[in-house]
């Protein structure tokens, strides 16, 4: 009986032990399966992560390549910009220089225009003074005109000289005295005395030809102006033109009479104007 009881107890314990192990086994098996499933999921996730990593790596390579290209383009653009800025600076410097030169030229032009206007005013004033001084003489004795910025007084030989002579008569000296009053007040002008003849040849003891006659007549006028009426000799220059600068036809007596003349040419000094032009 005792033996039977022991066997029963052993059988019960064995049965109990077997039941507990099976449960644990099932639990363990389920855990293993779940772990395997989780492992597969993790493996899948790992594969997905690797794919994403590969894609990101490829994208990174593309971005790096694009960045390198864009950096090169930016450097090229910067170089071009620097070059353009340099060229712009050069152009600005050249423009500034040209503007400065233009301003200087405009100042010079304005100065020249002022000087020319002043010269014209002086010539006009001189012309009026000469006309006023010689009012008492007729047009067949002398004429006064302005041409090319100069004042011309043409005195006929009828006023100054006898035919074939270089001696100035009384009426001529009166005209020269009036003219000298103007010249002595105009110290900044140059005076040229030109003798002119007609085309008829002359050959006398005193004059070999018309050149001689025209030069000596001009010299006679200069001598009277400087010695008798104190005109500055440094202002005045005589010259003879002979018959080579006629103002009329030498075929008629009237034309020849006009050509036989002595011209007093007065011109304001142009020293300042020449200096400006030569700068």
Short structural summary:
The protein has helices at residues 2-133, 157-160, 170-183, 210-228, 253-259, 271-277; strands spanning 142-147, 150-156, 189-196, 236-242, 261-268. By secondary structure, the protein is an alpha+beta fold. Strands 1-2-5-3-4 form a five-stranded mixed beta sheet.
Helix-strand layout with pairing:
Blueprint: H1 2-133, E1 142-147, E2 150-156, H2 157-160, H3 170-183, E3 189-196, H4 210-228, E4 236-242, H5 253-259, E5 261-268, H6 271-277
Parallel strand pairs: 3-4
Antiparallel strand pairs: 1-2, 2-5, 3-5
Looking at this protein, list some descriptive labels.
alpha+beta, 5 strands, five-stranded mixed sheet, 279 residues, disordered N terminus, 60s Ribosomal Protein L30, Chain: A, 13% strand
The biggest sheet amounts to: 5 strands, mixed
Strand order of the largest sheet: 1-2-5-3-4
Individual helix count: 6
> What is the overall silhouette?
rod-shaped
Approximately how much helix is present in the residues?
55-70%
**Strand pairing plus helix content: what structural class?**
alpha+beta
* The CATH homologous superfamily of the domain at 123-277: OmpA-like domain
Radius of gyration (CA) equals: 61 Å
State which percent range the strand residues make up. 5-15%
**Top-tier CATH class of the domain at 123-277:** Alpha Beta
CATH topology of the domain at 123-277: 60s Ribosomal Protein L30, Chain: A
Spell out the helices and strands N to C. Answer: HEEHHEHEHEH
Mean pLDDT: 83
What is the CATH architecture annotation of the domain at 123-277?
2-Layer Sandwich
Question: How many beta strands in the DSSP annotation?
Answer: 5
> Uncertain segments of ≥5 residues (pLDDT<50)?
2-10, 12-17
N- to C-terminal distance: 155 Å
